[in-house]
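From the methods appendix. Each design record in this collection lists the discretized structure first, followed by the designed amino acid sequence. Records were kept in a plain field format so they could be parsed without special tools. The example shown here is representative of the layout used throughout.

RECORD:
C-ALPHA CELLS (415 positions):
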C-alpha cells in the first residue's frame, strides 16, 4: 500500500520504519525542516519500558493542592478559557482512581515490553547510532512512605512480567556513586536493569537516513498538513501548504498536531499539550555524573547519560502551548541539578529546551483504525513517546494488516 505518514517525530519515524520494512511504499510529511526537531528533540532520553505508570493516579489527587500552589512545583497549571483544556482536565480527574490506574499500568506495560523487544531487534539489525545504552534505571526515593508505596507497585508489576529490585540506601550508592551528594537523603530505590537510554533526535535522524537510503521512503519537509479531504467515507487527499498529497492510506502521527486534524474530521482524541523542560550538559573528565539512568521521584526529574553528555528533564506545565523556555522554570531545574549532583563539574552552560508532550488524560495512546477506512492514528503518547515508539509502530502495522498481535485488540483503540 502507498501510505502517507503525517509527522516526522519519533512516532512518525518508527511508524515509517516498520511499515517500510513490511513492503509498503511510504512518504513522510512534516512542517519542520528535518526529522525529530519537535517534541522528540531533547526529551528525557530514557527508554523506561517498565516504568509506564500513568500521570493520572490516585496519589496525584492528594499532592495536587500543594503542586498547584508552589511556584517551583513539578506540576504547574494555568487555567485557560479553553474548552479543550477543561475536557482534558475532567478526563484526567476521572482517571485518578486506583483501579483505573492499575489497569492502565498493566496495559501500558504490555506495550512497553513489546517496545523493548522491537527496539532491541532494530538496534541489532540496523546498527543505528544514537548513543544507545542498556544502562538500567534507578528510581531514587527520599521519602519512606513513597518508597513503601513503590515496593507495592513493584510487586504488582512483577506479576505482569516486569523484573525489578528494591534497593537499600547503601545498595543505591554502590550502584550509582554519583548519588553521594544526597547520600543522607536517600531512603531506597527501585532498580530495573533492563531499561535503556538514547538520543531520540539522533535516532530520528538515523532513521531518516536509513529509510531514504535502504527503503526508498520519500520525505517532504517544510510542508504543513492543514486537513484531510473526505470522499465517500475515506480520505481522498491531505491538504497541505504545498498542495494536495494523495495516497492509498494515511497515518496521523504528528503528536500535538493530531488533535486539530482529528477534530476537523469529526472526532476528539483528547490530546492536550503538556509542556516539559530539559537541560543537556557536556561533561568533563572530572564530572561525577551518573552512568545509570536516574529518576528523582521526589522532584519528578530524570537523568540520562548520553555518551559525554547528561540529559536532565522534568516538570509539567498545563496550559502553556508555546515552546519558549520559561526562565523561572529552567532556573528551577538547574537548581535541582546543583543540589542533586553537586560534583557534576560540567563544561560550559547546559543547552536549554522546552517541548510539548502530546498527552491524553489516561496516558494511553491511540493506535489503530479510525472511522475512515483508510485512515489510522498513532498519537497521544505524552511523556512516553520514545519509550513506546517501536511497540506502537509494530502494533500499528499489525492493525493496518488486520492480523493478530501480542497486544489485545481492545487496547489503545479509538473508542
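DESIGN:
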Amino acid at each position: 500500500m502507498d501510505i502517507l505518514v503525517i509527522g516526522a517525530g519519533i512516532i512518525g519515524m518508527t511508524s515509517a520504519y516498520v511499515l517500510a520494512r513490511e513492503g509498503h511504499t511510504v512518504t513522510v510529511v512534516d512542517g519542520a525542516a528535518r526529522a525529530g526537531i519537535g517534541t522528540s528533540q531533547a526529551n528525557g532520553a530514557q527508554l523506561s519500558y517498565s516504568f509506564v505508570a500513568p500521570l493520572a493516579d490516585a496519589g496525584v489527587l492528594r499532592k495536587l493542592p500543594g503542586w498547584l500552589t508552589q511556584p517551583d512545583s513539578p506540576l504547574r497549571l494555568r487555567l485557560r478559557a479553553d474548552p479543550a483544556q477543561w475536557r482534558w482536565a475532567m478526563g484526567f480527574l476521572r482517571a485518578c482512581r486506583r483501579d483505573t490506574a492499575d489497569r492502565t499500568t498493566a496495559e501500558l506495560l504490555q506495550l512497553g515490553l513489546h517496545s523493548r523487544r522491537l527496539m532491541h531487534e532494530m538496534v541489532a539489525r540496523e546498527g543505528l547510532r544514537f548513543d544507545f545504552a542498556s544502562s538500567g534505571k534507578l528510581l531514587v526515593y527520599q521519602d519512606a512512605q513513597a518508597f513503601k508505596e513503590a515496593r507495592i507497585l513493584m510487586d504488582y508489576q512483577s506479576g505482569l512480567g516486569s523484573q525489578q529490585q528494591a534497593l537499600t540506601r547503601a545498595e543505591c550508592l554502590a550502584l550509582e556513586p554519583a548519588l553521594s551528594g544526597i547520600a543522607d537523603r536517600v531512603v531506597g530505590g527501585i532498580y530495573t536493569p533492563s531499561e535503556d537510554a538514547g538520543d531520540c533526535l539522533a535516532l530520528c535522524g538515523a532513521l531518516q537516513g536509513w529509510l531514504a537510503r535502504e527503503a526508498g521512503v520519500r520525505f517532504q519537509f517544510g510542508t504543513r498538513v492543514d486537513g484531510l479531504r473526505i470522499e465517500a467515507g475515506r480520505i481522498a487527499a491531505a491538504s497541505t501548504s504545498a498542495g494536495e498529497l494523495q495516497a492509498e492510506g494515511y497515518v496521523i502521527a504528528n503528536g500535538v498536531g493530531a488533535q486539530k486534524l482529528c477534530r476537523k474530521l469529526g472526532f476528539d482524541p483528547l490530546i492536550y499539550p503538556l509542556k516539559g523542560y530539559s537541560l543537556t550538559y557536556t561533561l568533563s573528565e572530572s564530572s561525577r555524573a551518573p552512568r545509570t539512568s536516574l529518576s528523582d521521584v521526589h522532584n519528578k526529574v530524570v537523568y540520562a547519560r548520553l555518551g559525554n553528555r547528561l540529559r536532565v528533564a522534568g516538570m509539567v506545565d498545563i496550559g502553556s502551548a508555546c515552546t519558549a523556555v520559561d526562565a523561572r522554570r529552567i532556573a528551577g531545574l538547574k537548581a535541582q541539578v546543583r543540589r542533586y549532583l553537586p560534583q557534576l563539574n560540567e563544561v560550559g552552560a547546559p543547552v536549554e529546551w522546552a517541548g510539548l508532550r502530546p498527552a491524553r488524560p489516561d496516558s494511553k495512546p491511540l493506535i489503530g483504525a479510525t472511522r475512515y477506512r483508510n485512515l489510522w492514528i498513532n498519537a497521544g503518547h505524552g511523556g512516553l513517546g520514545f519509550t513506546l515508539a517501536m511497540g506502537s509502530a509494530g502494533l500499528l502495522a499489525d492493525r493496518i494488516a488486520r492480523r493478530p498481535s501480542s497486544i489485545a485488540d481492545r487496547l489503545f483503540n479509538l473508542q
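APPENDIX NOTE: Residues 111 and 391 are 6 Å apart (CA to CA).
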